[in-house]
Each structure stands twice: as C-alpha cells, then as structure tokens.
C-alpha cells in the first residue's frame, strides 16, 4: 500500500472530472500520480472538503460524517484496493462500537469522506503500478487549477449544492 494525498481535481480533454492521487512523499511534478475519473458532484464535494470551502447546506459526504459521528463510529482509513476492467474499487475501514468494519465504496465517495474527517488515503501498490501515470504537473498547471476552483466558488450558488 502507498499512502497518497489529493493532489487535485481537474477536467480532462473531454470535460470529465478526474481526481489525482499522489504519494505523500513525492513532490509535484515528480514521481507518479493516480488519475481516477469521477462524477461532477463528487468532484465538487472533494474540492469543497480539500479547500475547506463553506457551503450553505451539508453535502452528502457531510451527512455521512455526521451519521458516523452520531453512531460513535470513525473512519480509520480508506483504500483504493483494486482496479478491474477499468473500474476502481475502494474500501472504507471504520472503527465502530462493535469493532472494526470494512465497507465497499466508490473511490470518489471514499476520498470525499476521508477528506472531511482527516483519514489516511491509501492505494494498493498494484493499482498504482497498473494505473499510475508520470506526474508532469507544472507550476502553471497548479495555478490554473486553483484559479479554476476559485472561479467555480465565485460563480456557485446555493442551488448548485441542492440534491
């Protein structure tokens, strides 16, 4: 397993959202990055959590966090455990009053939840080897991503977060 962090959320050439997971011990522009394509709502949820942006109403992953806290459970870690036929699979490990439990999840939901509760994010070494790509992020790319997110927040309205 390789511990990773959210290096960013971007749009690919076709306008699809992609989350970029990077080993925590590698600097931007070096090593590998794991791209996982996700939906727009999940991308928004992850960005809101990573940037600690205020939202007018709780998002689905905020609700998940509140439910877990209310039930006395906590997220121990999440793992992107495997990839099969281009589909990534993740697991959320919970500490509960009844002991540790592992729950199957989509990587986007698992990362969004982990980003809210400060849980570690891990990727199976085989997944990183199979699906990781060289990280060629430039400072200009990073600045453009941040500008894009700031524009999103400036233009977002409370209705954009309604389910």
UniProtKB/TrEMBL annotation:
Pfam short name (any one): BFN_dom
InterPro entries in the cross-refs: BFN_sf, Bi_nuclease_dom
Location of the BFN domain: 1-135
Entry-linked PANTHER family: VON HIPPEL-LINDAU DISEASE TUMOR SUPPRESSOR (PTHR15160:SF1), VON HIPPEL-LINDAU PROTEIN (PTHR15160)
Protein known as: Bifunctional nuclease family protein
Source organism of this protein record: Microbacterium pumilum
């Amino acid at each position: 397993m390789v511990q990773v962090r959210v290096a960013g959320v971007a749009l690919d050439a076709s306008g699809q959202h992609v989350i970029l997971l990077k080993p925590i011990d590698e600097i931007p522009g070096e090593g590998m990055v794991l791209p996982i394509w996700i939906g727009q709502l999940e991308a928004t949820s992850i960005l809101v959590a990573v940037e600690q942006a205020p939202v007018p109403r709780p998002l689905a992953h905020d609700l998940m966090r509140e439910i877990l806290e209310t039930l006395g459970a906590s997220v121990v870690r999440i793992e992107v455990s495997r990839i099969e036929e281009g589909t990534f699979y993740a697991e959320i490990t919970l500490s509960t009053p009844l002991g540790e439990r592992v729950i199957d999840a989509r990587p986007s939901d698992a990362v969004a939840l982990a980003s809210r509760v400060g849980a570690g994010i891990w990727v199976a070494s085989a997944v990183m080897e199979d699906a990781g790509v060289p990280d060629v992020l430039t400072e200009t790319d990073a600045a453009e991503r941040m500008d894009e997110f700031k524009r999103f927040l400036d233009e977002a309205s409370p209705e954009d977060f309604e389910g």
